[in-house]
Amino acid sequence: EYNELMQSESSMDNFVIEFNRLPYSSKKITPIKKRGNFLINKDEIKLVKSYAGNDDLRPAMKLINVQDNYAVSTNYHTLIGLYEKSLTNDEKNYDVIDGKVIENNSINVFPKWKQIIPLPYQLPNRIKIDTILFSDYLSKIFEYNLLNPYTNIVELRIDNKFVKEYNAKFLKDTIDYFIKLGYKNVFLNYNDGIAKATLFTTNEESVDVLNIKQDFAILMPTIRSDYNKMYIDLVNSDKYKKGGIMENNISSFDKMLQ
């Protein structure tokens, strides 16, 4: 039915897909089984390591940086921070070998990640996101090949007002990180500036991850593009005040312009 709809409506500039009715085969993301004791917790080690880089020309990116109760890794697209009281305040770098963390301070050029975290006053806007629902929507975008293959951009809007544009894969990777940590909701904190970093936080009261410790992630948006793209309309602010997200009966997904 979807393919028939695409063929019959391909001449239209814009049309709405009742996306929640489309089946998809993506596997359910399973949260890690336990939290705590990062240095010996294989589930947490594997999770944090999965967001590290794999470029031999950038060996520091392959490490996990630990300081100020955070274990941090980055692949240059997403930077994730796992908070744990048991972690040291002193800075140390770790390799992961055979699932175990091994201290490695021979490479002391891990990115100064604390310097790139936006300060609270720089993030005046906040959206509460249902992680599982959001991840499912992004999975369907991939499964039905709705993205422009040259840009892979998805645009977020609220009441048809532009919020940000992201590489859809990196956005899904970021949301999935929080699902793996067991979060049903996460907060997207952003500035209206197009190129400003987006900070995802888990504390309902505070966005200040340097002082109010919490699991977090940073994702850079793409430069705004006029190319064909999908957009997700997050409907209206009243839904968010109640903790809701993305209702399909209004205009949740619009097909990118043909």
**Number of DSSP strands?**
13
Task: Report strand %.
Answer: 15-25%
Major sheet: 9 strands, antiparallel
**Rounded mean pLDDT score:** 79
Q: What is the N-to-C order of secondary-structure elements (H for helix, E for strand)? A: HHEEEEEEHEEHEEEEHE
SS summary, helix count:
5
Low-confidence stretches: 5-17, 236-258
Provide the helix percentage: 10-25%
Q: What report would you give on this structure?
A:
The protein is an alpha+beta fold. The chain is built from 5 helices and 13 strands. It has helices at 2-8, 42-49, 131-143, 168-180, 237-241; strands at residues 64-67, 70-74, 78-83, 92-97, 100-103, 125-130, 153-158, 161-167, 185-190, 198-201, 216-219, 230-233, 253-254. The chain has a 9-stranded antiparallel beta sheet with strand order 5-4-1-2-3-11-10-9-6. The protein has a 4-stranded mixed beta sheet with strand order 8-7-12-13. Helix 3 (131-143) packs antiparallel against helix 4 (168-180). It is globular and about 45 Å long. It starts with a helix and ends with a strand. Residues 5-17 and 236-258 have low confidence and may be disordered.
